[in-house]
Structures are given as structure tokens and as C-alpha cells.
Amino acid sequence: MTDYSFLEPNTMIRLYAQGAFPMADEDGSIEWYYPEIRTIIPLDNFNYPRSLRKFIEKSDFEFRFDVDPINVIRNCADRENTWISEELIDAYKRLYKLGFLHSVEVYKENELVGGLYGITHRGAFFGESMFSKVSQASKSALVKLIEHLNEKGFVLLDIQFITDHLKMFGAVEIALEEYQKLLILSYTKNVFF
What we know:
With about 190 residues, this protein is an alpha+beta fold. It is about 35% helix and about 25% strand. The protein has helices spanning about 10-15, 50-60, 70-75, 85-95, 135-150, 165, 175-185, and strands at about 20-25, 30-35, 35-40, 60-65, 100-110, 110-120, 125-130, 155-160, 170-175.
């Protein structure tokens, strides 16, 4: 039997607070990763693409927070290759009950069409995954997340890996030392999502 004690809420939050994040491998085993190069979206200097701003203003999207995060996670996991195992989903459920897991959900005609989720610890949001069933839904969710984090006084948005999709929002790779400084600053914030 596999030992998943590192998926208990207190252990998970401690590891996230140190900058680590979990991923399940193809064989189902779960590892915690702590890369030397970190990817963030600077909350005080993010890019809001003008075309996306216009799209959101005219769209019929409705945005909700923390209404159905497990459904968001399941949609994120619904792909051919996923790092989100059932054991991780169970662990996320426990974190949600304790107020550490959060989601931004995008609805169209009352149907969930996109969203993202992540873990919070003090002034840090550790983004985990996003999905989109219709054009621009996940990008719109990310804009709403960034706006929300800024309103609440968060200092760190960790997005794990850089992609072209995230570069358009100002995502940058930084050295571990700089990342650790942001983590320490986030500890001084007692903000709530």
C-alpha cells in the first residue's frame, strides 16, 4: 500500500509554503517538485491584453469564486495526459474544507465552461491548473483571479511553468533566490481569498 501521508492537509500546506508543488506521474505515484527556476505573474506588473479586455466586456460570461472547485479540478484533469490523480483530488477536497483551495469559475448560460484553481497560503496563490471549454474562458478566469488577488493584497502568483498562453499576461521566470524573497514577503500578509 502506498503511503500518502504527505497529502495530509498540514503537510501539504507546509510544502506549498516552502514553494513545492505535487504532481502525479503516469504510474500514479505522486512527487513534490521544487524547481530552481520559478514562474510567476507579477501582480504589480501584469499584462492585461487589450483584445481580451474588450472580449470580457462584451461577453456573457459570469464569474464565480469557490462555488464548485472540485468540478473545476475534474475538468482540469479531463485530458489525455494529466498529473491530477484521484489521490490528489481527494487531497484537494480536504484542503478546500479547510479554506486553502480556491477556484475561479466561468459560466455561460449557467454552465461551467472554464476556470482555474490553486492553493493559498497567507499572501501567496499557488496556481495549479486551468481549463476552457469555450474560447477565452480560461484566460478570462486568469484575469479575474489577478484582479481579485490585487484587491485582496496578495503578493505572489506562482504559476509553476511558463507557456505562451501565460506569457501574454506578463509571466516571467525568476531565480529561486528571488522567488524565496517573494515567499517570505507573502508570509507577512494575513489576507483572505
